[in-house]
Amino acid sequence: MDQFAHTTPLAERVRPKTLDDFIGQEHIVGPGKPLRVMLEAGTVPSMIFWGPPGVGKTTLAGIIAKNTNRPFYELSAVQAGVKDVREVIERVKNQGMFGGNNAILFIDEIHRFNKSQQDSLLAAVEKGILTLIGATTENPSFEVNSALLSRCQVYVMQHLTKQDLLRLCTTALEKDEYLSGKKITIQEHDALLRFSGGDGRKLLNLLEMAVNSAQSQTVTITNKLVENAISAQPVQYDKTGEWHYDIISAFIKSIRGSDPNGAVYWMARMLAGGEDPKFIARRMVILASEDIGNANPTALIMATNCFTAITQIGMPEGRIVLSQCAVYLASSPKSNASYMAINDAMDLVEKTGNLTVPLHLRNAPTKLMKELNYGANYSYSHEGKNNFIEQEYLPDEIKNTKLYDPGKNAREEELRRFLKDRWKEKYDY
After folding, report:
1. For the purposes of burial, counting CB atoms within 10 Å of the CB of 319, is it exposed (0-12), middle (13-18) or buried (19 or more)?
2. Domain 353-427 belongs to what topology?
3. CATH class of 243-330
4. What's the pTM value of the predicted model, to 2 decimals?
5. CA dihedral angle for residue 37, residue 38, residue 41, residue 46, rounded to 10 degrees
6. Domain spanning 162-236 has what CATH number?
7. Average pLDDT value for the chain
């Protein structure tokens, strides 16, 4: 049994076979939730699971195939190409799997397929030759062709909670033949959770690694035991694991903290580890608005052009473009005023609901609407001094609310002076 334990990873040995055994993602597979209802009705459209590593995307695809008694094919976008996709399609055709009995093709990391590879799936999905289930850690709106995406339902999978992760450990200790044959007690779990980075697969395999390192039938899992097990096998933890999230966090925080040195160092760590350069560029586009905003509007232009350039020229030359952009963003003045404004506005909408649009702001394309005073008393701003006429643009219930508060930087101080000149006390310090 010891030999079996070392050849087949624990995460694979205890992989759930049914929805009832599946841990996490209650918002889509819990009783009465969308995916469970759909499966219970026997309906399986093409879909994409979007979420972080180790939250059950592959497991859920396998459960769907098993519960619907469909042939199941699995490809990794890292290794497969158009030829592999076409081979699966031809195999399904030759087996006569059409309509309600069509096969399921699961493609892991589908975001790594290029346009031609994704296009090779379109006809088969459209004709019902196969049902596509894709898994991605990246936003499918960016990485999946619109034609293919429009034919798939997207399910967002969330990070496993602490309770989910501890349940995974408990279940493994109870159900795995190898582990259940030992007397194992989890005295401390902080290191297990921290080094797994919330990845359920890594958590289970780390648990087994710690158990094996103890070389005893009676094992007490402590933080020290886990740390020693990791130290003995550093190759287990590279950029594809928890470091992916730690390093991108360090990269973002270095730019936010105006340190170009930290920014380029952490970028180099990601590039050396094989990180997708488009992922790095995309994060800088987001940061340019979230952390710089109107303190330097050119930052967003720089970041967007960086993403475009990376897409066009690729690596290794792309590293130069990435470095230029990262240094520029780190050396730029910072403001999160626009980011806070939309957050506050979203919170306000959630609290106040669908407030009525004031009559003077409504469109009046028909005679009836004009008779109902739609658009009446609206003042055309360009007729006023400096193209401005003071009037209320918010619903009556929240009038005079200020959501955008310019940041304390040269560019936004200029915006504040502009707004104060128009709106007076609303933009006083």
Report:
1. middle
2. post-AAA+ oligomerization domain-like (1.10.3710)
3. mainly alpha
4. 0.60
5. -170
6. 1.10.8
7. 85
